[in-house]
Amino acid sequence: MKEESLDILQALDGKNLRPSAGADVGLLQDAEKYNINLASLEKLEKKEKNKSQLRKKVVGDWRQLDVNLSDIVNLVLATSERPVFMIRDDNLVYLNQTAMQLLDIRADKDVIGDKFFNLVVQDDWNPLAENIGEMLTNAKSLRIRLRATTGKIVPMRFQAIYLSEIEHFSFILLGEHARKEVKPAFNTLYDDLTGLPNFFLFEDRTQVAVAMENAKENARDQQMIVVAAISIDNIESFRKMHIEELVIKKTANNLVLNLSKKATVALGLKYNFWIMLPGLKNMAEVNHEIRHIAEILNDGVSDNFTRHELLFSVGVSAFPRPGHSAKKVIEQAIAAIKKAQGSPKSTVEFFSADKV
Question: What is the pTM of this model?
Answer without folding.
Answer: 0.51
